[in-house]
Amino acid sequence: MRECARCPALVRSRSCVVPGDGAAPAAVAFVGLAPGRLGGDRTGLPFTGDRSGQILRRMIDRAALGPVFITNLVRCNPRDAGGRNRDPSAREIANCRGHLDAELALARPRIVVCLGRLAWHEMAGRAAPFDPRRPRPLRVGAMRLFPMYHPAYVVRGACTERAYARGFARLRRLLGAIALTAD
Ligand code: SF4
Q1: Number of domains forming the structure of the chain
Q2: Is a pLDDT exceeding 90 seen at residue 149?
Q3: Is the CB of 1 under 6 A from ligand 1?
Q4: Is pTM, for the whole model, over 0.90?
Q5: pLDDT grade, residue 176 (50/70/90)?
Q6: Does 183 have pLDDT greater than 70?
Q7: Residue 43: inside a domain, yes or no?
Q8: Which pLDDT belongs to residue 179?
Q9: Nearest C-alpha to atom 6 of ligand 1 is from which residue?
Q10: Is residue 3 part of a domain?
Q11: Which domain holds residue 136?
C-alpha cells in the first residue's frame, strides 16, 4: 500500500503513505480519520507527533487495554487549498477501504473503536446513531464496533480529558466482559 496511487489529490498532498501500526493479534483496533499534517504525515506512524496522537496514546496506556492496533480510514493526508487538514471525501474513504479491511483481517481485534462520526458511519453504516456519551457496542458481521469521539475533539476543547477517559474505562469493562464470555 506504500505505493498506492488510487487518490490523485492525496498523492499530491501526502508526504508518505501511513499504514496502520500495532499488534496482531490485537485486543482493540482504533480507526481514526486520516494522518494529520503535523502528525502521521510527518512521522509515518498513525496518531504520533501531534496532540491528538498524544491524547489517544496516553488514554490507551492509562486504560491498560493490552495490545492495540491503530489506523485510519485513509492512509494519506488530505489537505484543502490552503494546506490545512480536511476530511477525506467519500470516494477517498471508499478507495482506501480495502487497505483498512486487510489491516483489520491481520489484527483480528476483539473490538474496533471508531474514532469520530465519519469512522463510525463507514464501519457501522449511515443508519447507526453515533452516540459516544451513551456508547453501545454494535455487531457488524464478525466485528464488534464501539463509538468514541476523535481525540481532536479533546484538542479543540469540546470534551475534557476526564470525560474522554470515561469512554476508555467503559471500553476496558467491555473488553473484560468479552474475555469472560470467551473463557
Ligand atoms: S488514501 Fe488509501 S487508497 Fe488513497 S492513495 Fe492513499 S493509500 Fe491509496
Answers
A1: 1
A2: yes
A3: yes
A4: yes
A5: very high
A6: no
A7: yes
A8: 79
A9: 76
A10: no
A11: 8-182
